[in-house]
Amino acid sequence: MSLLTITKIEIKKSLKATLLLSIIMGLFVLMIAVIFDPDLFAEVEDIFSNYPEAILDMVGGVLDMSTFAGFYTVEFLAMIWMWLGIYFVLKAGQDIPSTIENKTIDLILSKPVKRWEFILGRYLRFLFTILTVIISMGLITVLLILILPNLKDQEINAAEFITALTWAFLLILSLTTTAFFFSTFLNRKNATGAAFGIFVVFFVIGTFYTSFQENIQDIKFLSIFFYYEPARIMVSHSYENVLRDMLILFGYTLVLTISSIMIFDRRDIPV
After folding, report:
1. Per-residue pLDDT tens digits for 47-104
2. C-beta neighbour count of 98 within 10 angstroms
3. Is 241 left (phi over 0), alpha (psi -120 to 50) or beta?
4. Nearest 10 degrees: Cα torsion 173, 178, 181, 185
C-alpha cells in the first residue's frame, strides 16, 4: 500500500462526513446572509462598540457591521475556531487512539505499509476535509452575494476574501494538527484532553493578552490565535504582517506534522 492508496482510502471513508459538514456550514452561511441588514446591524455595531475591550478582541477588535464583509467576518471568519475548530480538534484527538483501541491498526500494520505512510495518509484526510469545507463556504458565499436581494449592493473584494479564507484554512489546520500530534502518543481520553487544554490556553493568550500585565504580554507570540486576524483584511483592508502570520501558522503545522510522523514511527505498538 502506498501513501496515495492510503490517502484515497481514508478520504473515501470520510467523504460522507465531509459532505455533511459542508452542507451544515453552508446552511450556517445562508443564515448569516439572510439575516444581514446594513441599517439594523449598524445600530448593533454602536452597541458593541460600548462592550468591554475583551469582548471586541474575540472578533478581531474591529467592527463594521453595516457591510456584509464586516458582518461576515464577525459572525463567521472571526469565530471559525468555534464553528469548525472544536469539531476537528475532537476528531483528530481521537483518530490514532481509536485505531489502536479497536485493533484496526493491527491489520493495517501487518501489511507491507510503512508507518509514515499510514500516519501521513490519515493526516491528509483531515487536510482534504478542511480544504473542501472552506472552499465550499467560499463558493456558497459568492453565490449568495449574487442572488440574495439584501446583498445586491454589497461587495467583497475577491483578493481579500480569498486571502481571508486561506488564513482561516491555516488556522483550522494548525488546530487540527495540534490535536493529531497528541493522538500519536496518547490514548483517546488524554489526547483529547491535552488538545483541548492547549486549545484553551492558545485562545486565552492569543485573544486576551491585552488584559495581562504589560511585562508579560509578549506571551501572545506563543499562541497561534495571535497570528489570525481576518478583520485586518476584510474590515481594515490592510495586509500588514498577514503573510508573516500565515507563514508562521504554516510553519507551526509543518513542524508538528513532521513531529507526529517521527513519534509514531518510534512508538511501540505490538502487532
Report:
1. 566 655 655 555 555 667 788 998 899 889 999 998 999 999 999 999 998 888 877 7
2. 16
3. left
4. -150
